[in-house]
Automatic annotation (TrEMBL):
It comes from Phytophthora rubi. One of its GO terms (molecular function) is DNA binding. Residues 2-57 form the BED-type domain. This is BED-type domain-containing protein. InterPro entries: Znf_BED. Keywords: Metal-binding, Zinc, Zinc-finger. The keyword Metal-binding applies. Pfam families: zf-BED.
Length: 167
């Protein structure tokens, strides 16, 4: 069987699994509350709202999605839902179907420096958009100026339209 879910580092196992269909019992190391040993259904939701846990821990579990991704090396016809995995499907049952559990690497919340960099990139993009609009406006103004000059020289409108670039 593979390793335990990362959320177990914040819990102590108080009762092991009685059989392959049952779940262990876990106790939060911060507040002592006992929960069912199912990471996604009970343990992570508990950490998200645990008032005794440090804010860094609660924030970590607010933003992280610790979902398990199912990889099907043998066939795409076998399917096991993520919910059934959380509800206690045994790893050996998955192996019998040719499936393997792969932990999903969570993405961390961007730090202040990264947020500033993202904001700077957004501002640069807006500047580029404004510059593009200004260039388009200048092109239009030059086109109209050329049209007026050609009309003042007596060039027919159909020739002007044929020779000036379109908008």
């Amino acid at each position: 069987m593979g390793g335990r879910h990362a959320v177990w580092q914040y819990f102590e196992e108080t009762e092991p699994r009685a059989n392959s269909k049952s779940h262990p019992k876990a106790k939060c190391i911060y507040c002592g509350e006992k929960v069912r040993g199912q990471p996604k259904s009970f343990m992570i939701p508990h950490l998200r709202k645990c008032s005794a846990a440090p804010s860094s821990v609660t924030q970590q579990w607010q933003v992280e999605s610790m979902a398990l991704t199912i990889v099907t090396p043998l066939s795409a016809s076998s399917s096991v839902s993520e919910a059934s995995l959380d509800m206690g499907s045994d790893h050996s049952e998955l192996a019998a179907e040719g499936l393997e559990l792969v932990p999903h690497t969570p993405q961390r919340m961007p730090g202040p420096a990264q947020l500033q960099q993202l904001e700077l990139l957004r501002l640069k993009a807006r500047v580029a958009q404004c510059q593009a609009k200004a260039a388009e406006a200048q092109f239009t103004a030059e086109r109209f100026a050329a049209r007026i000059k050609l009309q003042s020289l007596g060039v027919p409108d159909n020739e002007i339209d044929a020779n000036l670039p379109s908008l």
